[in-house]
Specification:
Elements lengths: L5 H6 L1 H4 L5 H9 L2 E5 L5 H10 L4 E5 L24 H12 L4 E5 L8 H5 L4 E4 L4 H14 L3 E7 L2 E7 L8 H4 L2 H5 L4 H4 L3 H20 L7 E6 L4 E6 L7 H6 L1
Length: about 250
Amino acid sequence: MVELTDEQLQRYARQLILPDVDLEGQQRLLSSGVLIVGAGGLGCPVAQYLSGAGVGRLRLADDDQVDFSNLPRQVAFDESDIGQSKVEALAKRLARANSDTAIDARPEKFDARTASAMLADIDLVIDATDSLQARLDIDNATHDAGLPWIMGSAVRMAGQWVVFDADRELGCYHCLVTQPEAAGGAGCAQLGILGPVAGLVAMHQSVMAIKLLLGLPVPWGELHIADPWSGEYLAMPITKRTGCPICQASA
Ligand SMILES: [Zn+2]
């Protein structure tokens, strides 16, 4: 385990005094690697909070460029970033805030072709994609690699998040969504999104990621639905779907 420097003891002081974090937890965070797929409304705040908490390595994957329509919720970007690669603009912002975090910015899509290179030396994957197909690809690749992942989505005024265990003992994303649904899935560009709703989902993903990296219990296999506009929040266990290609294979 790495020794903390005086500057790190000062930087992380407010979380080091939390019994659930402590010195050992901080060392765990500093030696962890997280892949964040998508550098948009979910990916920006998740990356900022995980880097802020001292996660040692962040890999960012997104092939998109910053657009004016991103600025209301993609809070790591400003007007000078318009037209720039999202992962490169986000990496610059993160490096200015915390040089402890090694950033690996990859201006490419996560898919079946790029998955194995993207997952190398990674402990946890966070879905921040706004794409059903990308989530199916993440589900497949992390299942094959034996990694947990945290799904998140936000459209219009509501969002959802799920923490999937490495072995999918409590079901998987393929149990929730099937391939044909993915083909017809509409995202924020068609349906709209209120900025803070994306932020709310990103905060849940960030807290779950920190708990998971600390080795603390998380609510595996539960679909959490948050509708802050109406103030309704609920959670339900995922049930394994008959014919699910992943759960059947591992049964
Ligand atoms: Zn399944």
